Amino acid sequence: xxxxxxxxxxxxxxxxxxxxxxxxxxxxxxxxxxxxxxxxxxxxxxxxxxxxxxxxxxxxxxxxxxxxxxxxxxxxxxxxxxxxxxxxxxxxxxxxxxxxxxxxxxxxxxxxxxxxxxxxxxxxxxxxxxxxxxxxxxxxxxxxxxxxxxxxxxxxxxxxxxxxxxxxxxxxxxxxxxxxxxxxxxxxxxxxxxxxxxxxxxxxxxxxxxxxxxxxxxxxxxxxxxxxxxxxxxxxxxxxxxxxxxxxxxxxxxxxxxxxxxxxxxxxxxxxxxxxxxxxxxxxxxxxxxxxxxxxxxxxxxxxxxxxxxxxxxxxxxxxxxxxxxx
Length: 327
Known about the structure:
Low-confidence stretches: 158-199
Structural class: mainly alpha
Helix content: over 70%
Largest sheet: none
Order of helices and strands: HHHHHHHHHH
Distance between the termini: 122 Å
Shape: rod-shaped
Mean pLDDT: 79
Number of helices: 10
């Protein structure tokens, strides 16, 4: 395996969460068998997404052009908010609602096409919608959504929502209303000090509110970052401990396999020797039976010869006795 490929990562994050761990572990094992420990470690670090995050990842992987449109619209919304362009912001906010609604509908269709996806009634579409809305407010969330590597649902925790900020915007309508008012005749004011134009004061208040919102958003992100750093440190410690246990277990497995191979080799040798001994025993049995038959024949022959010798001896005795009588 040449290295951790984007295709393999996408394939894993397309996998439903309840089968993610098994698919990841199978990829880790395949990388180890291929002699690529670096890729195996990188794969082992991939974490299972929640169902809502999986649905967003599925959208980013299956329909990247739709997510690209969302990111582009989010950039335009942030620019409009920074520049306090009211008409443009209202227009983009309407587009945002339409885009998010279309993306949630697309997520529902993609999930229906997945054989192992949860039923439609159990899809966390509210979390999907909250995550897509958060992408309009947080650049980091938008990048995670675009990459298809989201691990959990997100929600915007800053100062209000970006599409509907809780501050007063200075728009072209305010200026038009100012122009529609009848111009005052030049002359001294009746005991009233000269003040700044209302639009300038509103712009100043809006700028102050925006700065406060940015400070609150930065503080919230810092708090979340600290919490995530603590969680990451704990997760990394757990990962190191798990990898150490995995290394030990792998070594024990390797040693056990070596012992088993040696025993199987010894068993094979004993089986071979047993077969040879059984052949030798079979030949010995045949030889014994042949020898028994030969002994039986020899004994019978010896008995016959003994009987003949005895008969001959008896005849010789009779002959000797007859000769003595004749004398």
